[in-house]
């Protein structure tokens, strides 16, 4: 009985240590230094995972294009950002690569896009949420895959 109780306490302590330490999976810039409002933006975008891409779309009812998802997630959190990708690429302030945090807008060069740009929301842990292209659905992707890493042109911070 004592052994079982001791093991349960040890397991509980280990879980607490892992949670408090960030499990070592996240960079220091991802470990909670983003304000609650930034996490709200990310959570709004997460709530749309699996919704269909739609050119010009900016709502859960009609679907989203890339900038529509970013615009909607910020609106849902009570913040205003530009609706168009070109303007989102200039919004807020620039953040150095490696210093991004949840809620930041990530902007990529994209040859398939009308204006040559694609936006998403950095979600933490080297992932971002976006509405990729026609025929696809909103999803998360790793920002360090060669395609995304090579085409990242700026990170924009809206929430300070």
Give the neighbour order of strands across the main sheet: 3-8-4-5-6-7
Number of helices: 5
In terms of structural class, how would the helical and strand content be classed? alpha+beta
Query: What best-fitting shape do the alpha-carbon axes yield?
Result: globular
Topology order in helix (H) and strand (E) letters: HHEEHHEEEEEHE
Q: Between the first and last Cα atoms, what is the distance in angstroms? A: 51 Å
Q: Mean pLDDT score, rounded?
A: 85
Number of strands: 8
Give the biggest sheet.
Answer: 6 strands, antiparallel
Helix percentage: 25-40%
- Rg from Cα: 18 Å
DSSP strand content: 15-25%
Contiguous low-pLDDT stretches (5 residues minimum) are: 3-31
Overview of this protein structure:
With 160 residues, this protein is α+β, with helices and mostly antiparallel strands. The chain has five helices and eight strands, in the order ααββααβββββαβ. The strands form two sheets. It has a six-stranded antiparallel beta sheet. Strand 4 and strand 5 (117-124) form a beta hairpin. It is globular, with a radius of gyration of 18 Å.
What can be said about this structure in brief?
This protein has 160 residues and is α+β, with helices and mostly antiparallel strands. It is built from 5 helices and 8 strands. The protein has helices at residues 2-21, 36-46, 66-76, 85-88, 146-151, and strands at residues 58-59, 63-64, 93-95, 105-109, 117-124, 127-130, 139-142, 152-157.
